[in-house]
Sequence to fold (183 residues):
Amino acid sequence: MADIERVTTLKIHGVTITNILSTSEHVCEVIKSCAQTQYALRILRAHGLSVSGLHIVFRSVAVAKITYASSVWSGFVIKRDEQRIDAFLRRNKKCGFCQPDLPSFQELCDTVDEQLFAKILHNKHHLLHYLLHSPSAASQSCTTSGEDRIISCFRNTLATLWLLWILTSLLEYYIKTLTDAAM
Fold:
């Protein structure tokens, strides 16, 4: 066991999470990456890209980075990090890089969740579709009616599945490492 390196963060599928289930480091990385996009947008504006073109690029790059896999990590975001993301969005509104009516981080995450939920609900071949129609899944996680409550429960289910997948991946890695070390 002395050969196994202990780490405090894990980056999996582009999402960084710490050993205390914090996403603050992920938020820092995302904002840093989006700040580079901000620089590129300044260059594009200087070269004559229209305002609507800037909005499209911002939404396609920065908003996509911010909301990537947000269904599984946004539930771990603390208020300070949410405020940092909202401040970044406000700065870009002020600079004219995005639409003035761009929603807040929480509203963006809610929209992403609703879109994912609708896709899963209406596609019987989706891997997670059974979670929405299984009586046992419904009784374990959601007992009240209302779309907001269902989406909230669905988000919790996704986060739980994601964490289980991470733990399973880590376990497989450690077993492989121990097996290789024993040989």
